Amino acid sequence: MNQSKRALPNLNMLVRQLKQDVTTLPTAMRAVFNWQRGVTELRTLRPATKLMMATMLIVTILGFILGKDYSWGIIACAAWLTTAITNRLIGDIAAQSFYLVMQFVGITVWHRKMAAQADSSELTGRKLSKLAGLSWFILAVLVYAIVLHFSKQLNGNQIYLDATLLPLGIVGSVLMVNGYRSQWVAWITLDVINVIIWFNQLRGFSPAAASMLALQLVMLANAIYGAYLWFFGQSAHRHDA
User: Fold this and answer.
1) Of the segments 26-35, 50-59, 206-215, which one has the largest average pLDDT value?
2) Which end of the chain is more exposed for a tag (fewer CB within 10 A), N or C?
3) What is the pTM of this model?
4) Which ranges in the chain belong to alpha helices (H)?
């Protein structure tokens, strides 16, 4: 009985927070797509970050040109989803659909968390507890088993590797939205698996495999760089300031 009474205020608080996030989503979207803020953020990025962003853009464009796979004007997430569907990668299809939804969740939550910080220029990384880490690992294993089952039923490709993409994406996205540094463990693992998947697809002459493999290699490098920034770069940046 006492546990029910304690759970009710927590549920009410979650409902109020959800309503607040939905209400502030338009404001957060305007902040994200504000061109003046975007120019300022690009101008103030670290030189290594600018180099990494430029490399990712160039490799993606060259990959599509050399692979004769053109996706001009298509949002990256939608293009990736289309490629995953063409290659019958069931786990990747589920993961990209999930990422599309999480874009809006992330915009809202980061807007709220950054507004609550003293420094609103970037989100400060948080440390994940061992118990929370174990809980997320167990959840990832359960989701993996579910995706693997459906991948077998739908005759997907590389099902044992492909089925890891959704659980790793869920863990990485939720940890990212909440500002946990441990997200990069999920992203680096996911990118390594994606490199293997698209290398195998390339050997089988699958659609868009060359461009996707090139993109995954750069994304892996970007994830390693992102992990460095979140684990070490933020503290160094605060000391410099």
Assistant:
1) 206-215
2) N
3) 0.64
4) 2-32, 35-43, 47-66, 76-86, 90-115, 130-153, 159-162, 165-177, 183-203, 209-228, 234-240
